[in-house]
Amino acid sequence: MQVAILSAVATDRYVSLSGGNVAPYTSWANAATNIQGAISACSSGDVVWVTNGTYESGEFSNPYDTIKCRVSITNPVSVRSVNGAEYTVIKGGTPLRVVWMGSNSSLYGFTVCNGNLSGSSDPNPNGPGIEAPYGAWTKTYPAVDWYPTNLDTCPNPRVYNCIIKDNINGKDGGASHGFAFYHNCIITGNSCSFGGGAGCAGVYFNCVAYNNSSGMRYGYIYNSIMRGNAGGDYPQPCLISNSCSPGLSGNNNITADPLFVSSSDFRLQAGSPCINKGINFFWMSDPGDLGSKDLAGNPRIVNGVVDMGAFEYNDTPAIPAMPVDILASDGTYTDKVAVSWTASSGATGYQVYRHTENNTNSAEKIASTVST
């Protein structure tokens, strides 16, 4: 499920902490050094690509309230990390919200953390993690039979494959507040003073809410797992379907232990009751859609039926992705070349081959690493 592209020709813009910071930021060499700079240069439908790093500078206004934000996506653009939430962090401050999102915007593959609205002078300091005040529902709350039939056309912001953590001191909604749709997100360690530590309102698909001051409030929740939230996993009425949490009943919900790998690793173990127990949505089988991959970047549906939670269980060992940020020295040494890289998730070691052509069948192995 992706936000509609509103311009005839979209432009890619780039962000890197080591970029040249030359507008309009249309190459890695000239990349903006903060995310907001690239967003401000965008037209409707553009894509902002953000490479590895912790982005924690700048304070920017939004058109809705008086709270400054680290990133304010006021135009309908897509902001995407290159290598995912493990490597790309947007970090807030005090008093500072992390991300504000307007209609038809999207955020993909970030850790959104450390927003803190303590001391804010705004009368409604909501959503220290993410605030998304604009959107549309097919029916108004409460709606026990609501079903998302217009998800491909409604203007609600979308948040994909993010880790939303340690955002505190909001009024409503710790991790988030408003009308965004969340896909394959981990929501943990967030708190607020009133309701919805894990989020107030919004629609959640295949998310995990764990160890927040409370769970979701006034949300629509599908294929998700809610455990260990201090004030209750769903403290005020939500529509919940095909999800896992103590005390749930009906709508294909279950109450059993989901069998996470650990309290900090929310992948499912073999035998988890959450495997193949979700409800499939149309975007999950479209490989071109941002919602078709789980938080680890693997296909969202395995064995015909989607799992509950942010990670799809697959008992076939996955081949780790190629390493990223591969660099080779150029002229530094007269008799050798130094090669470095950042390991991909799941890799335990690499082998290095050499050949004058791109031909692995005749290449010579010259080194092995037992770590990454």
Keywords summarizing the entry:
372 residues, mainly beta, 9-stranded parallel β-sheet, 7-stranded parallel β-sheet, 1 helix, 30 strands, 28% strand
What features would you describe in this structure?
- The protein has 372 residues and is mainly β.
- The protein has 2 domains: 1-316; 324-369, no CATH class.
- It is built from 1 helix and 30 strands.
- It has one helix at residues 35-40, and strands spanning 12-15, 47-50, 53-55, 69-73, 78-81, 88-91, 97-101, 106-108, 111-113, 130-132, 158-160, 163-165, 170-172, 176-178, 181-183, 186-188, 192-195, 199-200, 203-205, 208-210, 216-217, 220-222, 225-227, 239-241, 301-302, 305-306, 324-328, 339-342, 350-354, 364-369.
- The strands form 8 sheets. A 9-stranded parallel beta sheet has the order 1-2-5-8-11-15-19-22-24.
- It is globular.
- The model is unreliable at 138-147 (pLDDT under 50).
Biggest sheet strand line-up? 1-2-5-8-11-15-19-22-24
Computed structural class: mainly beta
Number of strands: 30
Task: Assign an overall shape.
Answer: globular
In total, the number of domains comes to: 2
Radius of gyration: 21 Å
Low-pLDDT residue intervals, each spanning 5 or more residues: 138-147
* Main sheet specs: 9 strands, parallel
Number of helices: 1
- Helix coverage percent of residues? under 10%
Strand content: 25-35%
- The averaged pLDDT comes out at 88
Query: What's the N-to-C terminus distance?
Result: 35 Å
Question: How would you briefly describe this protein structure?
Answer:
By secondary structure, the protein is an all-beta fold.
